[in-house]
Specification:
CATH class of the largest domain: Alpha Beta
Low-confidence stretches: none
Number of strands: 13
Order of helices and strands: EHEHEEEHHEHEHHEHHEEHEEEHHH
Number of helices: 13
Strand order of the largest sheet: 3-4-5-6-7-8
CATH architecture of the largest domain: Alpha-Beta Complex
Shape: globular
Radius of gyration: 20 Å
Largest sheet: 6 strands, mixed
CATH topology of the largest domain: Glycerate kinase, domain 2
Number of domains: 2
Structural class: alpha/beta
Mean pLDDT: 95
Distance between the termini: 12 Å
């Protein structure tokens, strides 16, 4: 029996990665195929769902200082690792928590809540914490998170013996964080102020923590939160690479005859550290064809190359249905591809 691996990230505002994977899997099984559902994340929204674990929660500060309940996950010890905490910064410091860029205060927005979630995992006795970065409201250089962790005891032994790995959705250096500030509601003048504050924050990490984070790849992720965590000893890695490794994507591809992936909008960024580009690269190395299902293809999006077929739902079912029923569109695209190509 042929096997399809469904490996989707979220379609922001339309479907979770798990929902997209389920739609593709249902369609494949209806065609007589076996299917493996492997939801993925680049470190942003969906990081918790992709990695799983026992649901835990902590009361933390959202980006604008309001107290909220935020989930994290506790994964049991394995042969390779001790108990692992999984933290998604978007759950505590996400732009969605403040109602989007129009309701955000880019200068005030703080990453403190993410630091509080890491502290909650540390207090639970984990040996490792995986922190997913992406979708943040902040450009505070991680100062909020660092201050929250210091207050919780980070400099007095709280993090001793705990490995912290930060999964970055973009691998930009620390000052590159300001390039995303406008997307979070910052005016041109505010962008300049934030750039100056990032410089001051970098000096603070150097002088107070002995950490030079300026040129560390990924330090600019989530408004510089990557740099703040690096200053406390975290290792920064590609979000896609970490999640793919944790869920065993390579092993799934070894048994696959087709891989289906996609996201809401396919553009140049899709192939720079994001899930679609990562899946395509891994599938190509494994010699497995790929179907990329997307809501729409942006003007100027690169040709993904041989062995990859792109299906645009806007082009096939129209814009209204593409966004109102992405699961149905994904299922239809899988059925049509399997029927015509196999």
């Amino acid at each position: 029996m042929r096997t399809v691996v469904a490996a989707f990230d979220k379609w922001r505002g339309s479907a979770t990665g798990a929902q997209a994977c389920a739609a593709a899997a249902v369609a494949a099984r209806a065609c007589g195929w076996d299917a493996a559902e492997v939801p993925l994340s680049d470190g942003g929204e969906g990081f918790l769902d992709a990695l799983g674990g026992e649901v835990r929660a902590a009361t933390v500060d959202d980006p604008l200082g309001r107290r909220i309940a935020a989930e994290w996950r506790l994964r049991p010890a394995t042969g390779a690792y001790g108990a692992t905490g999984v933290v998604e910064s978007a759950r505590a410091s996400g732009l969605g928590l403040v109602g989007g860029s129009k309701r955000n205060d880019p200068w005030k927005a703080s990453s403190a809540g993410t630091g509080q979630l890491v502290a909650a995992a540390a207090h639970a006795g984990v040996a490792r914490v995986l922190v997913g970065l992406g979708g943040s409201a902040t450009t505070d250089g991680g100062r909020g998170a660092v201050d929250a962790l210091v207050e919780a005891g980070a400099r007095d032994g709280l993090l001793d013996g705990i490995e912290i790995v930060t999964a970055c959705d973009v691998m930009v250096p620390f000052f590159g964080a300001v390039d995303f500030a406008a997307q979070k509601g910052a005016s041109p003048a505010a962008v300049q102020r934030l750039a100056v504050r990032l410089q001051e924050t970098a000096w603070r990490y150097r002088d107070e923590l002995g950490a030079d984070v300026v040129n560390v790849p990924g330090a600019g992720a989530a408004g510089g939160l990557g740099g703040g965590l690096a200053a406390l000893g975290s290792r920064l890695v590609s979000g896609f690479d970490l999640v793919a490794s944790e869920v065993g994507l390579a092993e799934h591809l070894d048994r696959a005859d087709l891989v289906v992936t996609g996201e809401g909008r396919l553009d140049a960024a899709s192939f720079r550290g994001k899930v679609v580009g990562g899946v395509v690269a891994m599938a190509r190395r494994a010699g497995v064809p790929v179907l990329v299902v997307t809501g729409e293809v942006a003007t100027g999006a690169p040709d993904p190359g041989p062995g990859v077929t792109v299906a645009s739902l806007v082009a096939t079912v129209g814009r209204a249905r593409a966004w109102s029923d992405p699961a149905g569109g994904i299922a239809g695209a899988v059925r049509a591809f399997v029927a015509t190509r196999f």
